Amino acid sequence: MVTIGDIARAAGVSRSTASYALSGKRSISEEVQERVREAARELGYTPNAGARALATAETRVIGLLARFLDDEFAPAMLQYIRGVSDTARAHGYDTLLVTEADGARALRRITSSRMVDGVVLLNVAEGDARLPLLRKAPQPGALVGLPGDCAGVDVFDLDFEAAGRLMVDHMHRLRHRELLLVSQPEHVVERGGAYVWRLRDAVVQQARARGIRLHAAFGESRQPEVGRSLHALLDAHPTATGLLLGNEAAAAALPSVLHARGLAAPRDLSVVGRYSDEFARTFSLPFSSIESAPDLLGELAVSQLVRRITTPEGSEEPHVLRLLPPELVDRGSTGPPPAAPRTSSVQGGTP
Amino acid sequence: MVTIGDIARAAGVSRSTASYALSGKRSISEEVQERVREAARELGYTPNAGARALATAETRVIGLLARFLDDEFAPAMLQYIRGVSDTARAHGYDTLLVTEADGARALRRITSSRMVDGVVLLNVAEGDARLPLLRKAPQPGALVGLPGDCAGVDVFDLDFEAAGRLMVDHMHRLRHRELLLVSQPEHVVERGGAYVWRLRDAVVQQARARGIRLHAAFGESRQPEVGRSLHALLDAHPTATGLLLGNEAAAAALPSVLHARGLAAPRDLSVVGRYSDEFARTFSLPFSSIESAPDLLGELAVSQLVRRITTPEGSEEPHVLRLLPPELVDRGSTGPPPAAPRTSSVQGGTP
DNA sequence: CTGAAAGCGCTTACAG
DNA sequence: CTGAAAGCGCTTACAG
């Protein structure tokens, strides 16, 4: 292994001079600087990360705590991970990915051993067990997902309440008067997935305010249950003309369900989902949707985290809570309600 | 920050004794051991990872180099990542996830700075630019994906040739005599994605051996192109009775395509794909498929990597090349060919 | 502009 | 069974 000592010797200077020449942290004569650089290049020198971390108390690594829960839709997670990882790199940081089931334990491990300079938490729940630990940790943390208590951390999330209102208003403007809402599975709520009820409550309230009949159901996260529950919901409410989807798994399953019933959007049913454009393109989902912006959320969280890391200790800026205003991406799946009500469940019926 | 010095002082012993008591690397009296452990617990001691890495030349971190390529289907990647990350943790390692576009550069960074004890490369291509660097690195590496030259690394992959033969033989046994094959997009091949032609060539050859007419096409990785190309293929070959899918994006798009044409599998068309069971369940893909086993491949790669890391330098065991025998998961989408040929493209026709 | 030295927090031969 | 010391490779005050 080639060390800074080797570089110093090759360049005929002291180790400190070699270090300064490479870092540029104090002025070094042109000539020496060139000799050192040349030696480093020639010997293929890279500073030892552990040694540097020990000396500077900086690892240039951020921790990313992701959880894969049975009742959530895994593919959506990938985009958050990419957003975080790519942004971290752009700031000169590497990413330690932790997928351990026991997130609190994992968080303690990586923070108290100083493996990371800061931490991004994905999939944050209302009373997230990782938060008390994060607040005690010496490193700053940024969250994607809104917890009950935001003290001591920077928080980024979609504004799910505004998203709920936007869905309803969009349908209301098109003159729909009876809507269906499919949320995430009920366990997600029980586990503290606050975004579920933030969206749901907003939808319920706005529907009431607009004089719209609303039938709200919890969905499923897995096939074939998702499809069955969609069928059941459509069967139960044949006069509903619009469908709001808070649930990515339901959105992915909907095209088959519509086909099986001989329905088309927006001709027979107007549909609005809530997922990313990337997701829509990957699975060819033809429904208008509220962009969930996973890459942007990851990027914002990391950028803020890096600011905290690099900002001097004392100058504590107040913590940030940023809820992104929802945007509706129009893919043409909404329109005025049909004149006649849908025919009820016709397996494979003609359109 | 609480250091081993603090523990030593609290327990009234030297730092070395404290270290040994915690690591158990030499015999320490019961009593002292207890005092040290108690002190560590009380003060909440965790060894500093950087300091430990510097002293031991071990980081207990493995690097995971993933690439997200436009012409590949991103959701499939997540399962590899989880397999690697979970297995690493089970062995006591953390995972540094690198998604940088320039994989070779990233590999050099993390290996030469000794951020990791070993490296797993995902998505390995025929003449992978990362391999020469990996061979020069001081850390061992394990690959998921078969490169042209396996020297110096451990390699794990699905046996794509056997998979191709299995697909054809399965259809042949059911008396199909004309088949369609949809591979990955052609750019994947151009880029050196060897698994594409390994599967394709084996299918072509086996079809010839069995006297089967085969129409092989490259697919697309994105909607709506995927769907269009499937339609075009089905239009072009109305007498083909079986469809082989090497391409996950095509598999995800197929249900809509079949619905739109009023076709059902296996009644009108027998279908075999190549993707994981997890993938099938997430997207409710009703097609029999050859299990691509991403979690198992990730697990095997990491387990072997850990063995290399922990094995003493000299005792170089020969490198491993392991190709998993394909397994067909039957989801009931294959059967005997229909008596009458398919009617050609009928948009929304009755079944 | 440059060098000698201390120190980051750990582990592990070396001595007793 | 235990302690004092060296060393891992770096950075950065301290001195000139």
Question: How would you characterize this protein structure?
Answer:
Two copies of one chain form a homodimer. Chain A is an alpha/beta fold. Chain A folds into three domains: 4-47, no CATH class; 61-158 and 294-325, Response regulator (Rossmann fold, 3-Layer(aba) Sandwich), CATH 3.40.50; 160-290, 3-Layer(aba) Sandwich (Rossmann fold). Helices cover 45% and strands 15% of the residues of chain A. The first copy, chain A, is built from 14 helices and twelve strands. The first copy, chain A, has helices at residues 4-11, 15-23, 30-43, 49-56, 74-90, 103-112, 130-136, 160-173, 186-190, 194-210, 225-236, 248-261, 277-282, 294-310, and strands at 61-65, 94-98, 118-121, 141-144, 154-158, 178-183, 213-218, 242-245, 270-274, 288-290, 321-324, 328-329. In chain A, strands 2-1-3-4-5-11 form a six-stranded parallel sheet, sandwiched between helices. In chain A, strands 7-6-8-9-10-12 form a six-stranded mixed sheet, with helices on both faces. Residues 345-351 of chain A have low confidence and may be disordered. Chain A binds a DNA duplex (16 and 16 nucleotides) through α2 and α4.
